[in-house]
C-alpha cells in the first residue's frame, strides 16, 4: 500500500515560500530514520533513485594495516572516539574542532561508516534511495599530507578500499576515488589504477596546495596542462565538492553554520578558472561535476561571467573559444539536496545538468525526509524530468 507524500502548501506571498523544515529543525542524523517505504512521491513506477552525493566514514585502520612495515610509523591512523571516526597520528586527530563535532552527529548511524555496507544499503532504502555516489568524510584531512609520496600511497589504499565496498554492494554503492594532481606521471598512474579498480570518478580539491618550492599550484596555468592532459585522456568525470573554504575571520557563535554558508564560495573561483583561464578550451573533453553546493548559484555565476567577459575582454591574455554559456552546457553539472530557488530557475540551468542527492549522512542531508525533498522535484519539473534529475543524469555522468 502506498500513500502520497504531503508537502506543506505554498503560502500566497512569495516572501514566505513553502518549507520542508519543522520549527525545531531536523536534529542530528544519528537520531533520524527513513520514512519513504510505501510513500508515492510522484515518480514513475520503477524509478531507481540515485543519490549523487553521499558520504562515508572509514571505520578501519586501513593505512596502518596496508603500509609496509618500514613505513607504518608514518601511516595516518583511524580510530573511533566520542562517537566519530578520527584520522590523525600519534593519537592527535586532524579532524578536531568543528569538523570533529560534526562527525559526532552522524558517525553512529549503522550505515554511516564503512564497517557495515548492508546496514548502509538498508538505511538508504528506508529513505527511498536505491543507489549512491559516496564522497569521503574525515579522509579529506589527508588532501595536503606534506609528504607527497606518502599522500599518493594513502590515496591508492583508499581507492582499493572503496573499490572493495563497491564490489560488495552489488551495484548500490559507488565510491569516489582520489588521485595525484601534482605530478603528471602520478596523475596517469593513479587514474589508470582507479579505472582498473572500477571506480567511476575522482575528487579533485578546489585548493590544490603548494609545490615543493612553496608555490601555490594554479590549475589554470601552463604548468598544470600536463596534469589536465592525463585527466582528459582518462575519460573520467572530475568532481569538486564544497568543504574546503573556512571562514575568513574568527567566529565565536555558530561557527559550523557560518562555515557552511560560505563553503560554496570556492566554486566560483574554480568555475572562473575553467572558463577564463582556458582549461576547457585546451581540454575540450573534460566533464566537471559540482557537488553539494546546490544549483541556485549557477545562473548568477553565468550572468556575472558573461558580464565580466564583456567588460574585460579587451584585457584578456587568453581569448575564449566560446561564449560563457557554452562551457556550462557542454562541460558541467551540479547537485542539490533542497533547492526550491534553483528548481524555479531550472530553465536557465538545464534539466540535463543537475543531480538530486540526499547527502547522507550529513547534518544538511535529507536523510529522514528524502521523500519530501523528492516530491518537491516532481512538483517543480514534472515526473519525466524528475527521473532525469534523481536518476538518469548521474548514471550518464558516471557511465553506469
Ordered list of secondary-structure elements with their pairings:
Blueprint: E1 3-4, E2 39-40, E3 50-56, H1 62-66, E4 77-81, E5 84-89, E6 92-93, H2 97-103, H3 117-126, E7 131-136, H4 148-168, E8 173-175, E9 177-178, H5 184-197, E10 202-203, H6 225-234, E11 238-241, H7 255-262, H8 265-276, H9 279-282, E12 288-291, H10 297-312, H11 324-331, E13 332-336, H12 340-344, H13 346-349, E14 354-356, H14 370-381, H15 383-398
Parallel strand pairs: 1-2, 3-7, 7-8, 9-10, 10-11, 11-12, 12-13, 13-14
Antiparallel strand pairs: 4-5, 5-6
Helix pairs in contact: 4-5, 5-6, 14-15
Short characterization:
By secondary structure, the protein is α/β, with parallel strands linked by helices. 38% of the residues lie in helices and 13% in strands. It has a single domain, classed as TIM Barrel (Alpha-Beta Barrel), CATH 3.20.20.
Name its key features.
14 strands; alpha/beta; three-stranded parallel sheet; TIM Barrel; 400 residues; six-stranded parallel sheet
Tell me what you see in this structure.
The chain is of the alpha/beta class and 400 residues long. The chain has one domain (47-398): TIM Barrel (Alpha-Beta Barrel). 38% of the residues lie in helices and 13% in strands. The protein has 15 helices and 14 strands. It has helices spanning 62-66, 97-103, 117-126, 148-168, 184-197, 225-234, 255-262, 265-276, 279-282, 297-312, 324-331, 340-344, 346-349, 370-381, 383-398, and strands at residues 3-4, 39-40, 50-56, 77-81, 84-89, 92-93, 131-136, 173-175, 177-178, 202-203, 238-241, 288-291, 332-336, 354-356. The strands form four sheets. Strands 9-10-11-12-13-14 form a six-stranded parallel β-sheet. A three-stranded parallel β-sheet has the order 3-7-8. The protein has a three-stranded antiparallel β-sheet with strand order 4-5-6. Strand 10, helix 6 and strand 11 (238-241) form a beta-alpha-beta unit. The mean pLDDT is 94.
Amino acid at each position: 500500500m502506498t500513500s502520497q507524500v504531503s508537502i506543506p502548501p505554498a503560502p500566497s506571498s512569495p516572501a514566505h515560500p513553502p518549507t520542508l523544515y519543522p520549527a525545531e529543525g531536523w536534529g542530528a542524523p544519528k537520531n533520524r530514520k527513513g520514512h519513504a517505504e510505501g510513500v508515492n512521491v510522484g515518480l514513475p513506477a520503477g524509478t531507481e533513485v540515485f543519490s549523487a552525493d553521499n558520504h562515508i566514514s572509514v571505520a578501519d585502520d586501513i593505512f596502518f594495516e596496508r603500509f609496509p612495515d618500514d613505513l607504518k610509523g608514518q601511516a595516518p591512523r583511524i580510530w573511533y572516539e566520542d562517537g566519530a571516526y578520527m584520522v590523525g597520528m600519534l593519537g592527535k586527530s586532524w579532524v578536531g574542532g568543528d569538523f570533529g563535532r560534526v562527525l559526532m552527529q552522524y558517525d553512529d548511524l549503522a550505515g554511516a561508516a564503512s564497517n557495515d555496507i548492508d546496514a548502509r544499503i538498508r538505511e538508504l532504502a528506508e529513505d527511498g534511495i536505491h543507489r549512491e555516489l559516496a564522497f569521503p568524510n574525515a579522509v579529506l584531512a589527508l588532501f595536503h599530507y606534506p609528504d607527497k609520496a606518502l599522500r599518493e600511497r594513502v590515496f591508492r589504499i583508499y581507492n582499493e578500499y572503496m573499490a572493495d565496498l563497491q564490489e560488495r554492494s552489488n551495484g548500490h554503492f559507488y565510491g569516489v576515488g582520489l588521485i595525484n594532481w601534482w605530478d603528471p606521471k602520478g596523475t596517469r598512474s593513479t587514474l589508470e589504477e582507479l579505472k582498473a579498480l572500477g571506480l567511476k570518478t575522482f575528487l579533485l580539491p578546489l585548493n590544490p596546495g603548494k609545490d615543493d618550492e612553496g608555490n601555490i599550484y594554479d590549475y589554470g596555468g601552463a604548468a598544470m596542462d600536463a596534469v589536465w592532459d592525463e585527466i582528459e585522456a582518462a575519460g573520467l568525470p572530475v568532481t569538486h565538492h564544497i568543504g574546503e573554504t573556512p571562514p575568513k575571520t574568527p567566529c565565536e557563535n555558530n561557527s559550523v553554520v557560518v562555515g557552511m554558508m560560505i563553503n560554496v564560495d570556492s566554486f566560483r573561483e574554480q568555475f572562473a578558472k575553467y572558463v577564463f583561464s582556458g582549461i576547457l578550451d585546451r581540454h575540450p573533453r573534460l566533464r566537471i561535476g559540482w557537488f553539494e553546493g546546490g544549483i541556485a548559484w549557477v545562473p548568477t555565476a553565468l550572468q556575472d561571467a558573461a558580464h565580466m567577459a564583456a567588460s574585460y575582454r579587451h584585457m584578456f591574455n587568453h581569448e575564449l573559444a566560446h561564449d560563457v554559456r557554452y562551457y556550462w552546457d557542454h562541460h558541467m553539472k551540479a547537485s542539490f539536496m533542497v533547492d526550491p530557488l534553483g528548481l524555479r530557475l531550472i530553465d536557465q540551468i538545464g534539466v540535463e545538468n543537475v543531480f538530486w542527492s540526499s547527502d547522507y549522512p550529513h547534518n544538511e542531508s535529507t536523510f529522514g525526509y528524502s521523500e519530501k525533498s523528492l516530491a518537491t522535484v516532481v512538483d517543480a519539473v514534472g515526473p519525466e524530468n524528475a527521473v532525469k534529475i534523481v536518476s538518469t543524469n548521474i548514471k550518464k555522468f558516471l557511465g553506469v
